[in-house]
Amino acid sequence: MSNCWNQTRAATSLIRRLKRSIINPAAVARPRCFTTAEGHRPSLVHKRSLDILHDPWFNKGTAFSMTERDRLDLRGLLPPNIMSPEQQIERFMVDLKRLEVQARDGPSDPNALAKWRILNRLHDRNETMYYKVLIANIEEYAPIVYTPTVGLVCQNYSGLFRRPRGMYFSAEDRGEMMSMVYNWPADQVDMIVVTDGSRILGLGDLGVQGIGIAIGKLDLYVAAAGINPQRVLPVMIDVGTNNEKLLKDPLYLGLQQHRLDGDEYIAVIDEFMEAVFTRWPNVIVQFEDFQSKWAFKLLQRYRNTYRMFNDDVQGTAGVAIAGLLGAVRAQGRPMIDFPKQKIVVAGAGSAGIGVLNAARKTMARMLGNNETAFDSAKSQFWVVDANGLITEERENIDPVALPFARKIKEAGRQGLREGASLVEVVEQVKPDVLLGLSAVGGLFSKEVLEALKGSTSTRPAIFAMSNPTKNAECTPEEAFSIVGDNIIFASGSPFRDVNLGDGHVGHCNQGNNMYLFPGIGLGTLLSGSRIISDGMLQAAAERCVSFVFCF
Ligand SMILES: NC(=O)c1ccc[n+]([C@@H]2O[C@H](COP(=O)([O-])OP(=O)(O)OC[C@H]3O[C@@H](n4cnc5c(N)ncnc54)[C@H](O)[C@@H]3O)[C@@H](O)[C@H]2O)c1
Ligand SMILES: O=C(O)C[C@H](O)C(=O)O
Ligand SMILES: [Mg+2]
């Protein structure tokens, strides 16, 4: 819910300066013969000649000085004119900016994939320059290296794959992971983002191609939290895929078998966790885009033993809390009014339930933090999934959704029943907030938005948080035109602000866990905490609120 990259950058650059030796890529592991930007901290490089030019961690391309060229056996391997890093970037940006002549970037940027390719090639040959470009233009290129373009990249990954990035552990590697983990060249890894590709954004099971999401998340760890790019590791755990199209595609790069399940599945993830924490005991592992069925189970299984968290469950929750509190403020009410908000949530998966749990805890704290407070907080939520309103009458209810099932009598008094449709629920409840984490594009239809006009709030909030762009529950244009100019709007993927006429702007805030997960990782790294506790996540969410401007 924030357009606050500037503040985030200012904060992280401050931390970076304070903790330079830990997290500044320029200051760590630089080869002895290189001159760093600050001109200090030499470090050893054993490579010579073309091996250096082909190593993205050390390659400086045309920016190698004459002395460096002599020392590293590079003389004659590069054009003679030595470029400054600034000139190199200028030359690169000419190439990239050419794509913006015909089309400005944005949610439906037709050149997004072409831009991703150009940036990815730079990432492959010169990491330092890649991150300089990304950090300097983060607002512009986050939607390219991250959501929404990363979704398209994952969908097409088998075709786009050129050079490997990160590690792949597959079901075929059972029994081997403890030794495989030593194939990674870095002796220190601070951050791993791991996925099993089972629920990539709102795009479903993309199997091995889901590694793109781990790469995109780690790009933000480097660009927004200043983590050393040599100490990040994207990981794909390939236990197969249930995506029939991929299973039939001869060019698909992953295991062509159905997903492992049950104990077999857990055994693979257990082996992976043991292997990475044996080699890098201080690493932090972010679980990303695991289908809900496993997201909660794995979080409970590991969270008290390993330094890990689940971004979709816990990162999203923190950002949503920041947005929900920001909305209360934008309604002109004191934050303490948060427990009075009526919230309809569409989607009861890893993200929806994560948000509900955190919102309930936050409300309960505001109400006195006792059993009664905890109980009365849950009465503020109405949860609708693919089968409609969730009540205690629901058969085979998912245990994680059970605490939010409405009592059937209570629902009846409101004119609602088990399985009531989203329109009916919005009509009857008249919520202050309508929040979507359903992965269903267009779910907030004209009828649903019309119903929200009856909200008891002067400024109803609509959070269409599903990704990527086409999966958003509604667009800001639809929300402003149907519900009215006064709404508070946020989306998971970036949209442009809406021109409301007469010089008025309908602001589209962004509600994406990218505003939190880099801070969760950085905070854990710097604090040295052995686990990532609820208290830490709550503190992170509260910090995030202070950066939020909900228009
Ligand atoms: N903005 C963010 O930071 C952020 C963070 C995490 C997830 N997400 C997005 O949230 C979406 C859901 O993620 P998830 O992990 O919870 O997925 P999931 O598949 O586990 O859950 C989806 C939920 O939506 C429900 N649903 C399906 N059709 C529905 C309908 N017609 N009406 C109401 N509910 C319906 C399903 O029953 C299920 O409960 C994805 O698009 C993902 O990209 C966004
Ligand atoms: O990846 C994102 O953009 C947010 C979130 O983690 C998601 O799964 O949609
Ligand atoms: Mg995710």
From TrEMBL:
Q: Which GO terms describe its biological process?
A: malate metabolic process
Keywords attached to this Swiss-Prot or TrEMBL record, sorted alphabetically, are: Metal-binding, Oxidoreductase
Positions of the Malic enzyme NAD-binding domain: 313-548
A UniProt-annotated Pfam family: malic
- Binding positions ((S)-malate): 199, 467, 512
Q: Where is the Malic enzyme N-terminal domain?
A: 123-303
Q: What is this protein called?
A: Malic enzyme
Taxonomic source organism: Theobroma cacao (Cacao)
What phylogenetic lineage does the species belong to? Answer: Eukaryota, Viridiplantae, Streptophyta, Embryophyta, Tracheophyta
